[in-house]
Amino acid sequence: MANSPWTEPATTALRAAGVRLDSYDPSATPGFTGDKKLGEQLLPERGKVLSELQEMLFANGRSGDHRNLLLILQGMDTAGRAAWCGT
Question: Which GO MF term does the entry hold, naming one (predicted)?
Fold first, then answer.
């Protein structure tokens, strides 16, 4: 790592401990006190915000910014599905 600012490989330094998803209540909504109906009402606006942020990330990349975003979805409900990435 002679020419790197890292004191150890980033993959080692940033690795998170494993998580057992089956130990979590699938009906839990941590950080959200609303019900399903409110969540469904808020979803379109959150989608717009996410779309705007993605557009800015893309535009920044086109102008030379080298920041990236890696989004990893893992879960009992989203695993193996493509429905979450609809437009």
Answer: transferase activity
